[in-house]
Amino acid sequence: MNVQDFGALGEVVGAIAVIATLVYLARQIKQANTSTHRQMYAQAATAISEYWLNLAKEPELHTLFQTLLTTPDALDRADQERAFLVLDAYLSLMESYYLHNLEFEEKQSQERWRRILVRLLSTPGGQIYWQKRRFAFHTLFGDYLETILHSEEQGI
Fold first, then answer.
1. How far apart, in whole angstroms, are the C-alpha atoms of residue 156 and residue 153?
2. Per-residue pLDDT tens over the stretch 94-127
3. Nearest in space to 48 (alpha carbons), one of 94, 81, 79
4. CA dihedral 154, 149, 73, 90 (to 10 degrees)
């Protein structure tokens, strides 16, 4: 073997090392992304649980929220706006969660959260809320809610 043969062999070994390094780095990045996604999922679940817990701790706010859902005409304009803000907070959490899962192509079933969204927005007050506030949400999330509400109406 002459010097040129050793040089060619060195290039092949170097190329293999570069490919191995790229494969290793790709796996590390994928693992880091998976870990970050799981952390964000856990944070979203915690935030949603805290939302409901905080609502339960405030009897006046809970009553206002329940009145919006069941008999929205019983609320004056100011109380209706306050109740809308309570629902805004929940749907903003759900919107963030939905868009995050969409970005990561999450395949997990979110049946429980879908049922809660349908239950909230199918009430008389939920319908009024959605008609007045849909514009405030991302188009993808709004379309998702429209789809699940429509499928629920159709019994799908």
1. 8
2. 888 888 777 776 655 567 788 889 999 999 999 9
3. 94
4. 160
